[in-house]
Amino acid sequence: MPVSPAPDALLRRLEWQVARRLEGLLQGDYRTLSRGPGTDFADLREYQYHDDVRHIDWNVTARLQQPYVREYLEDRDITAWFLLDMSASVDFGSGAVSKRAVLAEFTTLLCRLLAGKGNRVGALLFRAGIERVIPARGGRRQVLHILNAVERPAPVKTPRPTDLALALREAGRIVRRRSVLFLVSDFISMPGWEQPLGALASRHDVIAVRLLDPLEQRLPDLGLLTFQDAETGEQLFVDTHDRGFRHRFEGIAAAREEALRAAFANAGVDALELSTDDDPVDAVARFAEMRRRRLALAQPGVAP
Q: Does residue 49 carry a pLDDT above 90?
């Protein structure tokens, strides 16, 4: 299995080599990640297209016979939670980098950037369900605490398939205050997680971060191979020299890709794909720019 660097070494490398490449996108403008809901009333104005109907002031609307919305002072601090997939399938990597290493680097990067400006970060680690809760706090020590938990997950007592639906429902009960929630997973799970994802996204700003490996989408001609389910241990003997088998495999993988993207769209969550052969920093930068532009379109007062 590919080996990940130690948490403190990984954090130092990101701090010195790559973190500054993203500071302008993720630190200089918090709205890139989330528009804080705010709690302090600021003003009233006429309702405009794209305004959140939950902000309509119905008393003023009734008096003036025209819809008005309340404006609030925007929160500048973010509480971010990382819902992290610790299942056995995340240990897979066809090259030198595993999906778990990508998960660790992405989590390091975002935690470092958010916590570095006084924001709070927390983590929920799951397999069949939530196995560990790290309450949201700030500071560099909190980042290292989360990374150590990722690098040293609890041992598996009884192997069970990943149940993402259960993890999402439990996350909804644990995270009460509206937050940014990064769901980092390969989404290899028991079915039925789409509705809980939508329910969670109705209360929080949820970002789906999907981990993948090129070998999960396209099989090369490698002859006879034994495939093993990382979570159940079930084995399957296949002949990858068979062109028809490779074609069927790619068809199933493409159908799964389409189903996942439809599920994210239906749940109303943004999605970021992180492959084991990608540069996570470039991927996060592209994603942050996409979020900034989408926010500018949805909020006419925000410059693109």
A: no
What single-letter DSSP state applies at residue 90?
Answer: G
Query: What contacts 250, CB < 8 A, 6 or more positions away?
Result: 217, 218, 219
Distance separating the N- and C-terminal Cα atoms of the chain: 43
Range 285-288, long-range pairs (CB < 8 A, 24+ positions): 285/21, 285/22, 285/25, 288/22, 288/25, 288/26, 288/32, 288/33
User: Cα 147 to the chain's mean position, in Å?
Assistant: 16
Q: What beta strand segments (E) does 47-111 contain?
A: 68-73, 79-85
Whether residue 135 is predicted with pLDDT greater than 80 in this model: the reply is: yes
Q: Which two tokens stand for residue 297?
A: 């379109």
Strand order in the sheet with 130-137: 130-137, 120-126, 79-85, 180-185, 205-212, 270-275
Highest mean pLDDT: which range of 104-108, 158-162, 283-287? 104-108
Q: C-alpha angle 293/123/192, rounded to 5°?
A: 75
Q: Which pLDDT band holds residue 16 (cuts at 50, 70, 90)?
A: very low
Long-range contacts of 251-256 (CB under 8 A, 24+ apart): 253/216, 253/217, 253/218, 254/217
Tell me the pLDDT tens digit for each residue of 83-109.
999 998 888 888 889 999 999 988 988
Q: Alpha-carbon distance 266 to 268, whole Å?
A: 5
